[in-house]
Amino acid sequence: MPPYLKIAGWLLLAAWAYGVLCFLGSRSIYYPLKYPQGLWELQGELGATDVWLRAGDGARLHAWWVPVAEARVATLYLHGNAGNLSHRAEQIRQITAAGSSILILDYRGYGRSEGWPSERGLYADADAAYKYLVDTGHPPARIVAQGESLGTAVAVDLAARHPCGGVVLEAPFTSARDMAQQVLPFFGPMLVWGFDSRRKIGSIRSPLLILHGDRDAVIPFKLGRALFEAAREPKWFWPVRGAGHNDLIQATGAGYRERLREFYQGL
Q1: N- to C-terminal Cα distance for the chain?
Q2: I want to staple 111 with a disulfide (CB 3.0 to 4.6 A). Which of 57, 83, 106, 250 is the partner?
């Protein structure tokens, strides 16, 4: 075999291996739990109504709607990369207690929603939920986009493209590439990218509230702070002392609810 064919073969093999690693890297971002896994028995206790949505590409999505009488705002809650919406009961309780109705969405591949998650798919899912709120009588100026962990990137993307009354980000990060650098220096950013909130957040003109635990071992505190620095005013950063990644509400106690209430009143 001529040498150039051997070289070409090795190059093709290397390209194939790199493509596989990139594919596996992108898949490793998501940890969905499908129905009936979860805490679905809490639906009645929370007063949640099933909502079925259709994304622009046809994916059928499931969400819960929890109304609050005479609420000033409606929150579109975009959860993190693991579990499903049934695991966010405490967030639902606190947000409604603060005075906001809430539509909490399961992305494609999560809970009772169809499909498999992807970055583009998550953005399309958020668009479908936002459209539902607008179509059911909620003016954009009264919609709060709230994201948690991976959901912060979805909330930033949504609010950068659509008008919102406010944006709340819990434990955000600057980009998937920056996160990959934290997990696997040098090689990680070559395999995982996207979810570039740092690039998009400057387009958001809505009031912004960021909260981040100063002991977060999953998303470094410095990434949340860096995203805050890249954002426009008006903005507020709440460092939650002693909180990790999954215990923000527990660490803040009643402060979470009170801070959200103040945020809503200022919109």
Answers
A1: 71
A2: 106
